[in-house]
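Q:
Got a chain?
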Amino acid sequence: MNNYKNLLKNSLQLLFICSFLVVICYFYVDSQVAIYVHNNNLNHFWFPDQITKLPEFFVYLSVPVLFVTLVLRAFRELKSYEIVILSASISLMLATFIKNILKIVFSRAWGETWINNNPSLIKNDVYGFFPFHGGEAYGSFPSGHTAVTLAVMSVLWFAYPRYRWLYASISVAVIFSLVIMNYHFVGDCVAGFWVGSVTGMYCYFLIQK
C-alpha cells in the first residue's frame, strides 16, 4: 500500500512542478524561443532532425516486442530483462494513448506550419490553446515524441540505475532537438516529460509487482 501511495505522491508532485513550468514557458519562454530559432535558421541542421526520429523507432518496436513477450509468458516465466522490456512497451503505448487525449483537450497551435497549411505562431501569429478544437493542426501540446521517449527511458531509469546518465542524455538530446527544429514549444516538451515519466514509473513498479 505504501508503494502505491508513494507512486501517487510522486506523480502529483511532478504534475505540480510541470504545470508550473508549463505556465512559465507559455508566458515567458515558448514564443520567444520559437521566433529566435526561426529567425536564426537553427531548424535547418541535419543532425537534430535525425535525433527526433528516435522516438518513432521506439513506437515501431513496441507492438512486436509486446507480442513476443506475451507469447513467451504463455510458455514460461519471463526473465527480469524481459519484464523490463514488457514494462517499457506497455508504458509507451499508455503514454501514446494519454498524449492523444491531452492533445484534443488542450488543442494548442503549432510554432511552425507543418500540416495542411495549419495556423502557427511563425506564419499566422496564432499562439495559444484552443480547448477541444482537435485535429492535427492543433496538436502541439503535449509533445508526443517527448512522452514516448520518457515512457521508455523512465522504465530503464528504475530498472538499471547504473546507466541513468545515458537515459538522461538521450532524453535531453530528443527534447533539445524538438525545440531547436521548432517541432515543439519548450512547454510542450515539459508536458510530454510528465506524461512519459509518470506512465513509465507506474508501469515499471506495477508490472514488477
Q: What stands out?
A: The chain has a mean pLDDT of 92. The radius of gyration is 18 Å. The chain has nine helices and no strands.
